[in-house]
């Protein structure tokens, strides 16, 4: 069935291969051709895709902010000015390879203490062990209190004052803290010991 408005070709026209001069060949386009509208649409799609990529990257950065922060640890020796000592009877140990950094500070003054204020999500306390009874009390943020015993249970018990017998390592820790300011107070059991804090 012929399309409406389609030009009529007779058998004679086809056979002779000649088109009469008065025959108008007009084929309407199926739709208007607008190249500007097509370019604008592709540009809009490209901008939309770029915006989605930027949004995904932003969400990843926000999600992993705490993870990236916790990868950075700082270890402080007993000499750090960030540790505030209270009391006048603090003494420094003799140099020894079993102390973190070669030394530690200590006191037997029951009124003495050392305070370390910090901002972070975790804290670690280092100490060596001795062949006699040694205890120190740690209090975090005023309510988390624990008495630590630094007696080397694998060593024969000896009189107070004998040399340290086990290497300084992490003896107490707290993690998954709220990211903000915190305070660690080191107070006496029968000693107050400060070696290293991370």
UniProtKB/TrEMBL annotation:
Protein name: Uncharacterized protein
Species of the source: Dendrothele bispora (strain CBS 962.96)
Source taxon at top rank: Eukaryota
